[in-house]
Amino acid sequence: MATIKKGIVIKKVFISIFFPLLITLIVLAFYNFYKFQDYTSFSNKSKNKDIFTEIVSAVEFQDLALSMIESEAESRLKNYSDRLVNDFYPKLFGLHKANLTYLRKIMGMDEANEDIYIIDTLGVVVNTTFEKDKGINLFQFGEKHKTMLKNMFTGGSFVSERFTIEASTKRLKKYCYQPTKDGKYLIEIGLYSKSADETVNFIKKRLADFSKNNNGIVSVDFFIAADTPFSLSKDVVLDNSHIEYIQKAISTKDRQILNIEVDNKIVNYEYIYVPLKNTYLYKDAVIRIISNRTGDSFIFTNLVYSLVIFGSVFLFSLLIFLIQVARYRDYQY
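Above: the chain's sequence. Below: its structure in token form.
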């Protein structure tokens, strides 16, 4: 009889105390899990949004500074281009064979920062003051570049492009274009500027500072999104498998997120679209923010461990309590 009553007592205690508390613990565990996910997601999005806003502000500042540099240089570059088209081209057998270094000198161009390129209708640089670029086919730089140059041939007028990043040097360079009157060649003048270099170096420094000043941020990169995206920094390499995320960010004009595991670390890649203004060639850019999210997983694991330990202690305490209740009942009967 006493054994039956003991079983009834334990069953009642289980139903009235243990079971509700067990359900509460489970609900609490799931609640904490989702709250943790919401918090880390909000925190990471907020941090990345702040980085994005600061970079866009820096790019807008750069755009303003460069427009001032360009306004000073534009009339000078147009004068060089007009002289090549109207004075030198008709008098020479062809600019594709002319001594452009000599022409640059007699026109008073800056030999260290200003170059002349002669491009034929196939997109090949047939003559230039910058020997490394001689023979390059500019049409191979992508469909956008090819279309832009062909439009320059048919436009028939002087066109001044905004400063843009030169893929080979990662330096800012301004290009101006003007076709010859017979349409056989396109004259391109390229301009480097120390002041322009200083503005892009400022942005590079800010990109590097983000990873130094923000825990969990591995790197922040700025990609000019041509047909083949390239970074503002020389030492940044874009994995081929990630190009589709940049292209999708551009096509959707929305952020793209990729999470992968690298060397037992959870790495988050976020690609954020940035429109570029007032340029014929590169109209899109993408900011890439790489974050180490391993810490988030570590915190969550600790949270789970804490709940397990708490639950174990609670259950052990409850077991002791049930044993004491059972003994008390035995004593009563």
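The mean pLDDT is 78.
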